[in-house]
């Protein structure tokens, strides 16, 4: 009687393992399947966001490098339009952060315009502190949440 229970338990474990292995192999997406000119291409090969210092909307040198790559990518994919969203960390009032997020989005858009991207291809929006990238109330999370994110539209 004990052997039948043990055998049944082993069969159940083997069946569950087979099912989980099958699910894993069918959901894997190869990295070479990124479509050129897509949002995934922008994120993987260029970078979709720039970061800002606390209470600032000026483009940092690391942000300039990313925006330079975005400008070149947008020149290559001239039919793509983008939206630039300005975000803030959780500190400050809703009104203050909406205004700061808009200044950040505008700064990124202005930089791209100066690099030759037509203004008509870009829109800006501010989410203030309402769309955090990183959860947490510490400097590491806040630094990730002070950004402008470019999205293909």
Description:
This protein has 153 residues and is an alpha+beta fold. The protein has one domain: 2-Layer Sandwich (60s Ribosomal Protein L30, Chain: A), CATH 3.30.1330. The chain contains 5 helices and 4 strands; from the N terminus they run H-H-E-H-E-H-E-H-E. The longest helix is centred in the first third of the chain and has 26 residues. The protein is globular. The termini are far apart.
Helical run tally? 5
Mean pLDDT: 87
Helix fraction by DSSP (H/I, runs of at least 4): 40-55%
The Cα radius of gyration reads 23 Å
Q: Might you state the CATH topology name? A: 60s Ribosomal Protein L30, Chain: A
Q: What class do helices, strands and sheet pairing give?
A: alpha+beta
- Kindly provide the name of the CATH class: Alpha Beta
User: Distance N terminus to C terminus?
Assistant: 65 Å
- How many DSSP E strands? 4
Instruction: Tell me the count of domains.
Output: 1
Largest sheet data: 4 strands, mixed
Strand order of the largest sheet: 1-4-2-3
Oligomer: single chain
**Which residues sit in consecutive blocks of at least 5 with pLDDT less than 50?**
9-27
If classified by CATH, what would the architecture be?
2-Layer Sandwich
């Amino acid at each position: 009687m004990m052997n039948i229970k043990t055998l049944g338990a082993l069969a159940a474990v083997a069946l569950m393992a087979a099912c989980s292995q099958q699910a894993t192999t069918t959901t894997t997406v190869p990295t070479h399947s990124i479509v050129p000119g897509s949002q995934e291409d922008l994120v993987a090969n260029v970078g979709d966001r720039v970061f800002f210092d606390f209470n600032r909307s000026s483009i940092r040198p690391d942000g300039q490098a990313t925006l330079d790559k975005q400008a070149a990518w947008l020149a290559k994919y001239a039919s793509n339009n983008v939206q630039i969203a300005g975000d803030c960390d959780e500190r400050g009032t809703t009104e203050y952060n909406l205004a700061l997020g808009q200044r950040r989005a505008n700064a990124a858009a202005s930089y791209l315009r100066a690099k030759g991207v037509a203004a008509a291809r870009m829109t800006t929006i501010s989410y203030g502190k309402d769309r955090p990238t990183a959860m947490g109330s510490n400097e590491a999370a806040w630094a990730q949440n002070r950004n402008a994110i470019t999205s293909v539209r």
